[in-house]
Write a structure and sequence with these properties.
Strand order of the largest sheet: 6-7-8-3-9-10
Bound molecules: adenosine-5'-diphosphate, magnesium ion
Number of strands: 14
Largest sheet: 6 strands, mixed
CATH architecture of the largest domain: 3-Layer(aba) Sandwich
CATH class of the largest domain: Alpha Beta
Shape: elongated
Order of helices and strands: EEEHEEHEHHHEHEHEEHEHEEHEHH
Number of domains: 2
Number of helices: 12
Length: 333
């Protein structure tokens, strides 16, 4: 019996050779992920976490050093040809030909997939669905970012795949185009019953769009489940504090750790977060304790746990800082 999951990857390891670095870059370090059928599943992680490498392996574009992967019941390593027929792929970088029209791109893609004489009607159907009928005859290089991305998704759908892979489908889009893309992706999984695996480095996108997410950190999945469940596992409220200039975070931390009802005190730079069953009523005691310790706060906010807090709890780093770390390494892929 074929596996009931749409995607099952186990123990994926991938190291890239890098000039001048004997060990290379370990992009995946034993990544496991199981994606149920017919839903939007998000791989969330900062730049450099290993999302694109995972997508490349699952879509047969790269081979892992170790591990196994099954997509739509097919072994990716043994039968890459069959996997390619079952899936649609939208890479992080557009694969459309900018020197051809949107319609030409779609028709060519249809022919490559063996649609023959049906390629033209399928192209028109997809152009209509993605609001591109009016721009069908224009060169892709004249399209806006949102239009190009919609065409990319349409190209991935030409052959009616069972499983669609979207690598950062909304990165670089303005908020309006992003919202339109979210709606379209939701529709693919809902009305069309397709399985959609998307990657994103936007916390909000994973939270709003995906029924389940896997948080990827340094080539491993560190948490998996519905976003609300992951957040709900962090009981109580989160109190975020920014320390006043030149305050010693260590002094602030030890002052907070001694307070009753305060747990999980985490320091990230000059920001501190802690959890409390009732954040609002804990604030006066927190501020007083910091004052007494000579480590006053410049600002304080109380919030329900967010995915950012989940990430911090699991990795000891703030999500935004992890992004900065790898941004220095440039956007290689
Ligand atoms: P993400 O998509 O989450 O940003 P990637 O899978 O693209 O992450 O990259 C994971 C790590 O592997 C990063 O450190 C990245 O710099 C490195 N990497 C990716 N592709 C290559 C490559 N072709 N050669 C060397 N290193 C690479
Ligand atoms: Mg990527």
């Amino acid at each position: 019996m074929p596996s009931s999951a749409a995607i099952e990857a186990q123990g994926l390891v991938k190291t890239y050779a890098v000039r001048g670095d004997k060990e290379g870059v370990r992009a995946l370090d034993g990544l496991d992920v199981t994606v149920p059928r017919g839903a939007v599943f998000g791989l969330l992680g900062p730049n450099g976490a290993g999302k694109s490498t995972t997508i490349k392996i699952l879509t047969t574009l790269a081979r892992p050093d170790e591990g196994t992967a099954i997509v739509d019941g097919i072994d990716v390593l043994r039968r890459p040809d069959r996997v390619r027929r079952a899936i649609g792929v939208v890479a992080q970088r557009s694969g459309a030909d900018p020197g051809a029209t949107g319609r030409e791109n779609l028709v060519l893609q249809g022919r490559l997939h063996g649609l023959g004489a049906n390629a033209a009607s399928r192209a028109d159907e997809l152009l209509a669905r993605f609001g591109l009928t009016g721009a069908a005859g224009r060169l892709v290089k004249t399209y806006s970012g949102g239009m190009q991305r919609r065409l990319d998704v349409a190209l991935g759908l030409v052959h009616r795949p069972e499983v669609l892979f979207l690598d950062e489908p909304t990165t670089g889009l303005d908020p309006e185009s992003r919202a339109a893309m979210w709606e379209e992706i939701t529709r693919l999984a809902g009305e069309d019953g397709m399985t959609v695996l998307l990657t994103t480095h936007y916390l909000e996108e994973a939270d709003r769009l995906a029924g389940r997410i896997a948080i990827v950190d340094r080539g491993r999945v560190v948490a998996e489940g519905p976003p609300d469940e992951l957040k709900g596992a962090l009981h109580g409220d989160v109190v975020h504090l920014e320390l006043a200039a030149e305050t010693d975070p260590a002094a602030a931390r030890s002052a907070l750790q001694d307070l009753q009802g305060i747990r999980n005190v985490l320091v990230a730079g000059d920001a501190i977060s802690a959890r409390s069953d009732d954040g609002a009523s804990a604030v006066p005691a927190i501020l007083a304790a910091l004052q007494t310790a000579g480590a006053p706060a410049a600002s304080v906010t109380v919030a329900r746990p967010s995915l950012d807090d989940v990430y911090l709890r699991l990795t000891g780093r703030r999500y935004s800082e992890s992004e900065d770390l790898v941004a220095e390494g440039a956007n290689r892929s």
